[in-house]
Amino acid sequence: MSAAKQQPLSASVHQARESLGHRLRDLRQDAAGLTGRQLALLACWRSSKVSKIEYGKQTPTDGDLRV
Fold first, then answer.
1. Distance CA 4, CA 28 (A)
2. Are 54 and 36 in contact (CB under 8 A)?
3. Per-residue pLDDT reduced to its tens digit, 42-52
4. How many Å apart are CA 59 and CA 55, to the nearest integer?
5. What percent of the chain is modeled with pLDDT above 70?
6. Where would you tag: which of 19, 25, 36, 63 has the fewest CB atoms within 10 A of its CB?
7. Is the pLDDT of residue 16 over 80?
8. pLDDT value of position 33
9. CA of 64: how far to CAs of 2, 5, 31, 42, in Å?
10. CA torsion, points 31, 57, 50, 45, in degrees to nearest 10?
11. Which of the four pLDDT bands, split at 50, 70 and 90, describes residue 8?
């Protein structure tokens, strides 16, 4: 890949977080049928954590992903 086409590491990490967040949101809504608030209650999280993870603003920990 040429230098002009390479993304900075931070941009690719952000893109990966957003992609993971979209997938997690799909699983929460479609597979589990949960709202963000319901997931937060079940996981003992604040609702804002669910939102931050799903929108790629926060990287989930391994423990977060196990929930």
1. 37
2. yes
3. 999 999 999 99
4. 10
5. 88
6. 63
7. yes
8. 96
9. 36, 33, 17, 12
10. 140
11. confident
Kindly state the tokens that stand for 19.
Answer: 């992609």
Locate 7 and state its tokens.
């993304």
Q: Closest Cα to residue 67, out of 39, 32, 34?
A: 39
Q: How is residue 39 written in tokens?
A: 């997931």
**SS3 track for the chain:** CCCCCCCCHHHHHHHHHHHHHHHHHHHHHHHCCCCHHHHHHHHCCCHHHHHHHHCCCCCCCHHHHHC
Cα angle 57, 20, 53; round to 5: 30
Which residues are CB-contacts of 7 (< 8 A; sequence separation ≥ 6)? 15
